[in-house]
Every structure is written in C-alpha cells, then in structure tokens.
Amino acid sequence: MTDFVRPGVWRCEFVLVLPPDLGGASFRSVASFVMDFVLYARQPEVNLRSGCTAPESKLLPAEWPTRAVMVTEPLGEPEELETLHVGTQHVNLWWLVPIHGAEYNLIQQQGIEAFHALEEASEWSLADVRRPPLV
C-alpha cells in the first residue's frame, strides 16, 4: 500500500491484493512494481478512476503472467471504504489488479463492465496473479 498525492488534486491509497506467496515473486520485485506504478500514476496525463488501465509492462514481476494493470474501487469491501475521510482530507482507496494483455484489450474495446461480467462468471480470484486469462 502506498500514499499518492498529486498537489492540489487529491490523495489516494493503492492496495495490491496478492496470495500469501506473492504469486511466486519476491517482495523486492513486488515493491518495485508498486513504486513504478506510483510514478506512472503521477504523470499529468494519467487520470485515475475506476476501470482505468495501464498497458502491459516488463515492470511487473517476471513470475506473473499478468503483465498489465487495472485500477478499480475496492472489491468486496464496504462501500464506505472507497473514500476515507481524515480530518478535512479525502483519501480514495484504489485496488491495483494485475491483468492479462487480452483482458486489457477487452477493457479498452468494451469497457470495464465487460471485464467485470467475465470476472463474476469466473471461479478465479483477481488476487491470483497466476490465474488464466478470463478472455
């Protein structure tokens, strides 16, 4: 989990949910990926919102077949956790979900709803970075 601040805009926390063995990756490679994503998300052209995606990248741990990333609201969490209120600050909670290239393409072409429909019909957990593609 990491804190992200874009000056003058808002704060957010990223959560990367993984299996206990980190999908076969080392803690160092996972932490490096999260930090790389934070740097990516700080770019002025990146507009974080539910369903936004980052294309396939070699920056994700090599042990994972999932090479792209989807940002989504917390899945399976109470709705009130989507935005945390700390004093006068509002902190958005975003899940980082590693996805396959075919899933990235589906989201780009048909939208996040198409992906979520496949995910709901699947028996696989999105936390399993070694799952087969849903597409």
Write the layout of secondary structure elements.
Layout: E1 2-6, E2 10-16, H1 27-41, E3 53-54, E4 68-72, E5 83-86, E6 89-99, H2 101-110, H3 112-121
Helix pairs in contact: 2-3
Pfam family, one: SUFU
Domain Suppressor of fused-like: 10-132
InterPro entries: SUFU-like_domain
Description:
With 135 residues, the protein is of the alpha+beta class. The chain is built from three helices and six strands; from the N terminus they run ββαββββαα. The protein has helices at 27-41, 101-110, 112-121, and strands spanning 2-6, 10-16, 53-54, 68-72, 83-86, 89-99. The longest helix is centred in the N-terminal third of the chain and has 15 residues, at 27-41. It is globular. The two termini are 28 Å apart.
